[in-house]
Specification:
Elements (H helix, E strand, L loop, with lengths): L1 E5 L20 E2 L2 E2 H11 L4 E6 L3 H8 L8 E6 L5 H7 L9 E5 L2 E3 L3 H11 L3 E7 L7 E2 L12 E2 L10 E9 L15 H11 L4 E5 L4 E3 L3 H12 L10 E4 L2 E3 L4 E2 L4 E2 L3 E3 L4 E2 L4 E2 L3 E3 L4 E2 L4 E3 L2 E2 L4 E2 L4 E3 L2 E2 L4 E2 L4 E2 L4 E2 L4 E2 L4 E2 L4 E2 L4 E2 L7
Parallel strand pairs: 1-4, 1-6, 4-5, 8-12, 15-18, 16-19, 17-20, 18-21, 19-22, 20-23, 21-24, 22-25, 23-26, 24-27, 25-28, 26-29, 27-30, 28-31, 29-32, 30-33, 31-34
Antiparallel strand pairs: 2-3, 6-11, 7-13, 8-11, 9-10, 14-15
């Protein structure tokens, strides 16, 4: 069994984080998000993986190499121009020789891949789609099934009076390689809008595999933060590294935490972090390697990437700081604010309400109030 992971998107909804880092390489619990998908495959015996890249492809090759460090064999294939979801898989067809899996590169899940594959083989269809349930079906494309589990139609963002199921396409498929004969080479082609509806029209058997496994599309700042919180709450399985120094507080080697600092879990503090006296790191924080939290600062629900500094008496709540952000003294950052790589925010600023600051920006003292 092989897997193709689609990692070519530009991640526009997650800007400014993705202006410097491809979305699948954004840190999640201080690991590249893509590592979660690769590890999921490896746990289920899938070790031959193709990455379909387009945006900043060199980042994937530099970090993962041939995949041997993670116990898999990775092949990176870069699109010359965007080919959409299905066109991207057609572009790697030469590496596919049997039944294979396709993953969207922005979905976090602990799906039982073995059961999905077994279901596909038992049904004998040409494609099987992993389906998950949602509370508001009108925000998604719905996938109704008949009594045998066969897909009967695709309903794109229906009104409430059209809702016949709460099952949606969860972005993971098992497919037979002959389906790629239906895909034009070198052209933009979509699974959701073209291949799958065309299969239904032609009567080709396609099944849905409903699962209550954890599922999260990390494509927005709110969901990116929520994925961290769900892992910290043990809703999504995860192997924490470092030492649990207090209940649900994990600190990696080289982290220096003052005995006069207040640290509450669940929280992760990466290697080389320094937390000063009288600082507070409260619940749902993930601090990246080498971060510094100065005296009297207060963090709650904050995700900081590597090398950030939070100045004295500053407050961070439910926000994301990309690598190398420097926060001055008495600054407030909250309400899903996102600061891009290398941003400098000087003293007395107040950044809230989902504000986004592009990489490299410098905000003088007492400039922004939201």
């Amino acid at each position: 069994m092989q897997a193709v992971i689609l990692v070519g998107g530009q991640g526009t909804r997650l800007r400014p984080l993705t202006l410097t880092v491809p979305k699948p390489m954004l840190p999640l619990m201080n690991r590249p998000f893509l590592e979660f998908q690769i590890e999921l495959c490896r746990r289920h015996g899938i070790t031959d993986i193709v990455l379909s890249t387009a945006y900043k492809p060199e980042v994937f090759a530099a970090y993962f190499g041939d995949g041997s460090r993670l116990g898999v064999r990775l092949t990176c294939v870069t699109e010359d121009e965007p080919l959409d979801t299905c066109g991207a898989v057609k572009n790697v067809e030469r590496y596919i020789d049997d039944t294979f899996l396709v993953f969207n590169g922005d979905v976090l899940s602990d799906l039982d891949l073995t059961s999905l594959i077994d279901f596909h083989r038992a049904k004998g269809g040409k494609a099987t789609l992993y389906l998950t349930r949602v509370e508001d079906p009108t925000a998604y494309g719905l996938v109704p099934l008949d009594r045998t589990g066969r897909i009967t139609e695709f309903l794109e963002k229906p009104s409430w009076d059209q809702v016949v199921t709460d099952l949606i396409n969860a972005g993971t498929y098992v497919m037979e390689p002959e389906l790629l004969e239906r895909v034009p080479e070198g052209e933009c082609f979509s699974f959701e809008r073209q291949l799958f509806p065309g299969m239904l029209e032609d009567g080709i058997a396609m099944y849905g595999f409903p699962s209550d496994a954890y599922w999260m599309d990390i494509g927005t700042p709110a969901k990116y933060l929520q994925a961290h919180y769900d892992i910290l709450a043990r809703i999504m399985p995860f192997s924490f590294s470092g030492e649990m120094i207090r209940p649900s507080v994990w600190a990696e080697e080289g982290a220096e935490i003052s005995t006069e600092a207040a640290i509450f879990g669940p929280t992760v503090i990466a290697e080389g972090c320094h937390i000063a006296p009288h600082a507070t790191v409260s619940s749902n924080c993930v601090l990246g390697p080498g971060c510094e939290v100065d005296e009297g600062a207060h963090l709650e629900g904050a995700v900081t990437h590597a090398g950030c500094r939070v100045g004295a008496e500053s407050v961070l709540r439910r926000c994301v700081l990309a690598a190398g952000v420097k926060i001055g003294e008495r600054v407030h950052v909250s309400d899903q604010a996102v600061l891009g790589g290398g941003v400098v925010v000087e003293d007395e600023n107040d950044l809230r309400c989902g504000i986004k600051v592009w990489p490299g920006a410098s905000i003088p003292p007492s400039t922004l109030r939201f």
